[in-house]
Design goal:
Layout: H1 2-16, E1 19-24, E2 34-38, H2 48-58, E3 62-66, E4 76-86, E5 90-101, E6 104-113, H3 127-138
Helix pairs in contact: 2-3
Length: 146
Amino acid sequence: MKNVHIFFFILQFSLCGCTAVDVRPVPANQVIKAVSIVKNEKVAVDDFLDVLVAGFERHGIATKVIPEATDSANKYVVTYVAYRNWDMAPYLSNATINIEKDGEQIAHAEYHLKGGGGFSLMKWDSTKTKMDPVIDELLENFNSQP
């Protein structure tokens, strides 16, 4: 009987997928009307940039996608990386979003699918389903009014 309990514990643990999210949100004293998002050409998650842009715009923040970080004085600049794994189909496994102002990081978010998602079917959830809550938490304190 004890072996049955151990088996079900291991099965339940392997199916959970275990996602780790670590967010340091935008401080409430920051007034953000627009951000420049530096396009990361190395990211192979096809819809990641679209989800990122939509997430900022959903919060009332205008976005401009730029090819590289240029003069960032008095601007909010967003950089990101995203990685995918493959298990019968590609899926988002890790992502990091940073927001900087005047070259200083003011906010940071990380999404990590522990163990590559294990046997969990949630690992194949869309990029939007995975990242929208992370972006919402990242921007929960933002202020659009001076």
